[in-house]
């Protein structure tokens, strides 16, 4: 019989028994040194993590064998993690991690036990854990779908007008005031709204869009403010969060704000002034913390004069106003835009200079969106990678000639010779590029998306001097 008065001996025996019990009844045991490198691991545990033999794990950092292992934290902090859940490729494990001390009390490693057998008794807890994991995954994916898609790098254009737009938009990203984006359809207002949000301190929070023109007036208020439980029958019985609530902490992008019905304009003004709102059918006042970016393609000042847009809301929105110019006013951007669109279409298409010249004569009422559609159609129409003028003309359909081109044709009652027209377009484009870059040919070539030698050759042909 053991001497019960021999306490150090009993302690040693208790430690040994404890280790053996844990080692035998657990799904796995692992020991690491002070660098969190594996010193020992049992065979069962090694197999769970895809190793043939436990010896293959020896000397490796613990995370390279067990992704998500926290043994390194235990070694570093010297503090145990008595009960924790750890995800594995199979089911999650209940684990316990303890530091190992030497006689002087220094941490020399850590030991981890996976208490797999305990899972049965922990099944209610486990079910809750798994449902929380699922909720987390679905919230993450919702958040992802509400993240802004574009950044400033995707707003293509180096014309002075485009650079000014980007400069203003970048500057607005640092402020929390409302932004008003004005411009024709397809000019990139939504793209800019995404980019502003992405560059703002709210970037990690939701970006939520609401197109005022696309939703029937009767549903707009519920969509905007949400509904209280019991306010409606059917699917909305339980109540629904509105865009204002979903965007909380982030950015709300209101597209086509010029089409917003007057009663909703008043309510929006209240949200902007008082930073609170009530869901439809509720008396509860909710706080709103959203940064507003609004866009419209209509003339808001004219709408104010007509009485279809509230003047006070207009003044409230008209703080940081960015006018996005139509494509026809920044034709220098055409080559770079075409290149970006071809890249996005993942073909290896290019434009014949005559085709490019034709693009420069169209008025582009649908702006960049129309350019994208025309180039996509041209790629589908052509068997060649080099798209010629005829293909591009077919893709454009009815050419809406630019006013200057119309005037030029009307002046002498004749259609300009094609080659002369092309040379004229190229000369003008190159002149502009050289003016912007103060005569720096390599830089102008880069902006035009041309090789340096090609630009020199063209300048020579067109009689232009750098
Ligand atoms: N400067 C640009 N560079 C690259 N792509 C652009 C640019 N401007 C617009 N686009 C692209 O053109 C398309 C239309 O842009 P966007 O939806 O942002 O325009 P919009 O002004 O919001 O139009 P709408 O008023 O019709 O909603 C998008 O595919 C966008 O990525």
Automatic annotation (TrEMBL):
| GO biological process, any | regulation of DNA-templated transcription
Molecular function per GO: ATP binding; kinase activity; sequence-specific DNA binding
Entry keyword annotation includes Kinase? yes
Looking up InterPro entries in the UniProt record yields: AAA+_ATPase, AAA_lid_NorR, Homeodomain-like_sf, HTH_Fis, P-loop_NTPase, PAS, PAS-like_dom_sf, PAS_4
- Quick check: keyword Metal-binding in the entry? no
Enumerate the Pfam families for this protein: AAA_lid_14, HTH_8, PAS_4, Sigma54_activat
The record, for SMART domains, names:
AAA, PAS
Segments forming domain Sigma-54 factor interaction:
155-380
Per UniProt, which keywords does this protein have? Answer: ATP-binding, DNA-binding, Kinase, Nucleotide-binding, Transcription, Transcription regulation, Transferase
In terms of PROSITE patterns, this protein maps to: SIGMA54_INTERACT_1, SIGMA54_INTERACT_2, SIGMA54_INTERACT_3, SIGMA54_INTERACT_4
Identification of the protein by name: Transcriptional regulator containing PAS, AAA-type ATPase, and DNA-binding Fis domains
Source organism per UniProt: Phytopseudomonas punonensis
């Amino acid at each position: 019989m053991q001497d019960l008065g021999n306490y150090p001996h009993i302690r040693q025996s208790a430690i040994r028994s404890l280790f053996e019990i844990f080692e035998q009844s657990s799904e796995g045991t692992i020991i690491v040194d002070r660098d969190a490198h594996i010193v020992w691991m049992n065979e069962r545990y090694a197999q769970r993590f895809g190793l043939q033999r436990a010896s293959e794990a020896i000397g490796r950092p613990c995370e390279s064998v067990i992704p998500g292992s926290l043994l390194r934290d235990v070694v570093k902090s010297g503090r145990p993690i008595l009960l924790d859940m750890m995800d594995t490729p199979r089911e999650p494990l209940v684990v316990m991690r303890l530091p190992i001390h030497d006689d002087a009390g220094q941490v020399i490693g850590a030991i981890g036990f996976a208490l797999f057998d305990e899972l049965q008794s922990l099944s209610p807890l486990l079910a809750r854990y798994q449902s929380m994991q699922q909720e987390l995954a679905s919230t993450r994916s919702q958040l992802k779908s509400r993240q802004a898609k574009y950044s400033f790098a995707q707003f293509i254009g180096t014309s002075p007008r485009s650079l000014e737009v980007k400069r203003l938009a970048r500057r607005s990203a640092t402020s929390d005031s409302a932004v008003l984006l004005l411009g024709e359809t397809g000019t990139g207002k939504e793209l800019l709204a995404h980019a502003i949000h992405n560059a703002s301190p709210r970037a990690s929070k939701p970006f939520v869009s609401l197109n005022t023109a696309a939703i029937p007036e009767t549903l707009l208020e519920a969509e905007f403010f949400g509904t209280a439980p019991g306010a409606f029958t059917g699917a909305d019985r339980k109540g629904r969060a509105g865009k204002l609530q979903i965007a909380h902490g982030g950015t709300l992008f209101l597209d086509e704000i010029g089409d917003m019905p007057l009663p909703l304009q008043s309510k929006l003004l209240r949200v902007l002034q008082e930073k609170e709102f009530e869901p439809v059918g509720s008396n509860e006042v909710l706080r709103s913390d959203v940064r507003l970016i609004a866009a419209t393609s209509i003339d808001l000042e004219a709408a104010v004069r007509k009485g279809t847009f509230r003047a006070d809301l207009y003044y409230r929105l008209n703080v940081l106003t960015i006018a996005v110019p139509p494509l026809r006013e920044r034709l220098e951007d055409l080559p770079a835009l075409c290149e970006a669109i071809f890249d996005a279409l993942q073909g290896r298409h290019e434009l014949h200079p005559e085709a490019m010249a034709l693009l420069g004569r169209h008025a582009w009422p649908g702006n960049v969106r129309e350019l994208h559609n025309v180039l996509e159609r041209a790629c589908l129409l052509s068997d060649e990678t080099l798209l010629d003028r005829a293909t591009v003309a077919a893709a454009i359909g009815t050419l809406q000639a630019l006013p200057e081109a119309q005037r030029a044709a009307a002046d002498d009652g004749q259609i300009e010779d094609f080659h002369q027209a092309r040379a004229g377009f190229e000369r003008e484009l190159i002149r502009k590029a050289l003016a912007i870059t103060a005569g720096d040919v390599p830089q102008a070539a880069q902006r035009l998306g041309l090789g340096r030698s090609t630009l020199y050759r063209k300048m020579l042909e067109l009689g232009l001097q750098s």
